[in-house]
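Entry 12.
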Amino acid sequence: MKSSRDRQLKFATVLFVALSVVYASAPVPFAGQAAADDTPAAEGKDATKDVDKTADDAGWTPLKGKWDFSRYGGEGPVEITDEGIEMGFGDPLTGVRWTGDYPKDNYEIRLEAQRTDAHDFFVAVTFPVGDQHCSLVLGGWGGGVTGISNIDGNDASSNDTTLYRMYENDQWYKIHIRVVPKEIVCKVDGEIVVQVEREGVEFDIRDEMDPALPLGLANYQCVSEIRNIAIRTLDKAKPDATSQPKSDK
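Predicted 3D structure (tokens):
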């Protein structure tokens, strides 16, 4: 009669052979290719060109062809192409402004932006809020401040929207801004970074951002790139349907 050790060895051998057959029959990814369920998010210059894509991706209009330079005085070089906008190092600001049609309320803006050199805000999006305006600042005050300038006279470094978040150079970030009668909601890479109610609030911009009006993009002493800029109006009959909870991740 075989010993218990012999039976265990035979069982282990059969199990190893079975597992080898299963493994050999499974599809093997190419070198460096992750499994389908483990594909990491694209980073840097290879990031996807879709911005905040949802099941309902209709109605977006690309903003192309009607950008002009913002005259700040001391602005750096700007290159505008169909593929995007590159804003150079200014002293201190560089930017562009949209000269075409635009909505004032019940709309969304989306874009991608990255900083390629230096360390301050790589994009401030100035946009209308009804008859007022404000700016979403990403990476200001030395690189770490995200928020809205201005709310009740206080800028992005000193109001309820102030958020400290670091941004890496040479990495694309997806930016999404929603303006509805009830509130303003801003996202970065799908995460809500600003959600502020409009009732009883006064929105404004810092004086030096005037050249960005009524809809513009700017950076501060850095080099940045912008692409995939688009806008769409929302259903005025159901404005509250566009509101989002504090986090939708």
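Annotation: DSSP finds one helix and 15 strands in the chain. The chain has a mean pLDDT of 81.
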